[in-house]
Amino acid sequence: MSHTTFAPPLSPPLRLTEIRLPLGHDDAALAGAVRLRLGADAPALADYSVARRAIDARKKSTIFLTYSIDVTLTDPDAHHRLAAQPGIRPTPDTTYRPVAHAPHGLTRRPIVIGTGPCGLLAALMLARMGFRPIIVERGRVVRRRTQDTWGLWRRGVLDPASNVQFGEGGAGTFSDGKLWSQIKDPNHLGRKVLEEFVLAGAPPEILTVAHPHIGTFRLVTMVESIRATIERLGGEYRFDSKVVDILVEDAQVRGVVLESGETLLSDHVVLAIGHSARETFAMLEQRGVHIEAKPFSIGVRIEHPQSLIDANRWGAHAGHKLLGAAEYKLVHHCETGQAAGRTVYSFCMCPGGTVVAATSEPGRVVTNGMSQYSRNERNANSGIVVGISPQDYPGGLMAGVAYQRHWEERAFVAGGSNYNAPVQLVGDFLAGRPSVALGRVVPSYRPGVTPTDLSLCLPDFAVAAIREALPAFARQIKDYDMADAVMTGVETRTSAPVRITRDASFQSLNTRGLYPAGEGAGYAGGILSAGVDGIKVAEAVALSMVASQVLHA
Potential cystine with 44: which of 78, 281, 390, 542 (Cβ 3.0-4.6 Å)? Predict the structure, then answer.
């Protein structure tokens, strides 16, 4: 006679937080730390896994790794005892559950305009729920777009339809690929974004490290993988398809018109156009869609030797493989002169990266920062930008766009009118004199740079504010104001200068069925927050389409 042994059910996992270990610890040390935290209940441990790993470098002489660990126990009594202790709590359920599924007989498919992180996640979620979205992108497929972008960087030839701002993957494709955000995320949608990225080829470590990033080359292959998934699920892409008009009837969107003349009909249109879709902003204003001016920032990119940043952050541990290239985040509130009341801050810091040409319009120079996954280039770069408000650029709704263009045109001229960027050494900038030569820090911007005076292509208040901020930053990072550090102008595309306002249903305030989303609509700032916003909007579209189908059944 045979006997079947039934194992007792395991208790739900618990999360142990703030487990600190030295930088060079081994796996056995982590297992030992978990058992030490469990104490007398350690024999009940069935399994454990790392939920999060962060770096505690508050003391450069003693750097720790800080873990959150999910443990599964075999003893329910042990589970109950531990769950009441400080630093131990139930592991949150981050399982994503679709809010709807497409009903049979849908007469019109949703349209998603834009293939940046927001548009991609919106389209992907709609496709997974069975709604077979049509994705419209003004630019080109990501590999062709990469070739076009290199045309500007290597030869100074700009393609206005295919560049850092426009094309499959959006502006985030040519960036450091940062995947963290400070948004409130009670439904763990950020986790869903990361899980989809891992399915698309991102390294699994992005699910556990505190500050995950991917880098440009990996983003390219991920974008292609997401496209393949969407198409396999019935979605349809239209590249080289700029939206030039929207169809509105009785305050309800009915479709879009493409530059080719083709009309696509839909009662549900996701507007994930990105922060540089200036012609689209103007078209929406002309069509009466509710838009308002919003603050953004303007400034420069600054480059230092990455070794300087590493030494300041990691001390003697600089170069350790688990630490990688060091980052920083700086903020200064100005108190004197015409800069009083202004805030200067670092923006989109790229460790071991490069400064890139990011213009999308002829006759203008715009900068951005980019890193590969390895972050092993010799320079660190970051935007150093000054916050401005609509009071700084009075006029109509498009006054912010005009303001950005003005300074981008000034930078183009200061750089030599050939897409070279204007640069100035920090020492010269602080002394108020033009630069005539470069020093030890070699600028990474391509196609090239022209030493000059950056005050020619920045508003006076921004010049004054940055001059006050740099010595203040040097009190946090030694030698941040080193004379040879290079400043490259201009950084103007920190965010959209407008907000396409929406209500609690994620629809335009005055145009039903139009769903403004992501950075271009003023509701996100970075890859992760844009992806989260894309999921929220996709859910709103799905629920509305199901409700509409039931209503008309």
Answer: 78
* Span between the terminal Cα atoms of the chain, in Å: 60
Residue 367 and residue 132: Cα distance in Å, rounded?
Answer: 36
pLDDT at 394: 87
Q: Where are the alpha helices (DSSP H) in 392-486?
A: 399-414, 426-431, 460-474
- Distance of alpha carbon 76 from the chain centroid: 42
Residue 414 DSSP label: H
Q: Which two tokens stand for residue 186?
A: 């009670």
Torsion, Cα 30 35 39 45, to 10 degrees, reads: 150
- Give, as one character, the DSSP assignment of residue 364: -
Residue pair 117/219 in contact (Cβ under 8 Å)? The answer is no
User: Is the model's pLDDT at 225 over the cut of 50?
Assistant: yes
pLDDT of residue 551: 61
Name which of 271, 440, 286, 444 is nearest 351 in CA terms: 444
Contact 219, 173 (CB under 8 A): yes
pLDDT one-digit tens code per residue, 314-323: 999 999 989 9
| 0.85 exceeded by pTM | yes
Rounded distance between C-alpha atoms, residue 475 and residue 469, angstroms: 10
Task: Tell me the pLDDT band of 218, cut-offs 50, 70 and 90.
Answer: confident
Residue from 540, 541, 428, 549 nearest 484 by CA: 428
**75 burial type by CB count under 10 A (0-12 exposed, 13-18 middle, 19+ buried):** middle
Kindly list the distances between the CA atom of residue 173 and the CA atoms of 116, 352, 515, in Å, as whole numbers in the listed order: 8, 17, 23
The answer to whether 436 and 430 have CB atoms below 8 angstroms apart is no
Please name which of 469, 248, 250 lies closest in space to residue 339, comparing C-alpha atoms.
Answer: 469
| Cis amide linkage into residue 490, ω under 30° from 0 | yes
Cis peptide upstream of residue 9 (ω within 30 degrees of 0): no
CA 105 to chain centre: 37
Beta bridge partners of 443: none
pLDDT at 1 over 60: no
Tokens matching residue 132: 């077979």
Give the number of residues written for the chain: 553
CB 511 within 8 A of CB 335: no
Nearest to 312 by CA among 477, 483, 480, 484: 477
Give residues with Cβ within 8 angstroms of 183, minimum separation 6.
190, 528, 529, 532
- The two beta strands, 64-73 and 367-370, are unpaired
Query: At 314, which helix (H) or strand (E)?
Result: helix 306-314
Q: In 10 A of CB 102, how many CB atoms?
A: 19
**pLDDT digits 0-9 by tens, 410-419:** 999 999 999 9
Backbone angles phi, psi at 221, to 5 degrees: -70, -35
Greatest pairwise CA separation for the chain in angstroms: 95
And the tokens for 177? 């690929």
